[in-house]
Design a protein that fits this description.
This protein is mostly beta strands. Helix content is 12%, strand content 34%. It has a single domain, classed as Domain of unknown function DUF1541 (SH3 type barrels). Strands 1, 2, 3, 4, 5, 6, 7 and 8 form an eight-stranded antiparallel beta sheet that branches. It is globular, with a radius of gyration of 18 Å.
């Protein structure tokens, strides 16, 4: 009888963990009015898969496994969060303005979409004003969306795990943060 109760308790615990994980992966985020970015629908956690052709950084400022403080506010609770570097890649990072495929308002100055997440981007940096098709899936309605390049920079981009400073659920494999958005303190 005791074994049956123990087994029932374990099953209930596993179910609660699975259900809570499902709920946190679809958390919605508020708009970042300061940077004119609409982050509604942004996925808190992503997979650790990287786009095809993305090259690992040979000498990143922040090594994989190292700790860093995030100095970016792409999402609520991100600025000031302590994170762990999961991946470091050399590429071209873009801010883009696009119209979600799911409808809704235009998203302006989204940080960051990388060269390997833009359809037929080639190897040269795209100029501001260039019309593109996004192959990134950071937010609902982003995959396949038509957009415009706002800015471009050659940089190292990082995939990071962090816990939001506002007490939200831990974020795994956030794509992307740049060198200038990370600090040792």
């Amino acid at each position: 009888m005791a074994n049956k109760k123990f087994l029932t308790g374990i099953i209930m615990l596993v179910c609660m963990v699975v259900l809570s994980a499902c709920g946190s992966s679809s958390t919605q985020h508020s708009s970042d009015k300061k940077n004119n970015m609409n982050m509604d629908g942004m996925e808190m956690s992503g997979s650790n898969e990287v786009p095809k052709g993305l090259k690992t950084a040979e000498n990143p400022t922040f090594k994989v496994g190292s700790k860093a403080v995030i100095k970016a506010d792409h999402m609520e609770g991100m600025n000031g969060a302590k994170g762990t570097i999961v991946g470091a890649y050399d590429t071209i990072a873009y801010t883009v303005t696009y119209t979600p495929t799911t409808g809704g308002p235009e998203v302006k100055n989204h940080k960051w979409v990388i060269q390997e997440e833009i359809k037929n981007a080639g190897t040269q940096a795209l100029k501001p004003g260039t019309k593109v098709i996004l192959e990134a899936d950071h937010m609902k309605g982003m995959m396949g969306a038509k957009g415009t390049i706002d800015s471009a920079e050659h940089t190292t981009v990082y995939m990071v795990d962090y816990t939001p400073v506002n007490g939200g659920a831990p974020v795994k494999n956030h794509e992307w943060v740049t060198d200038s958005e990370l600090s040792t303190k």
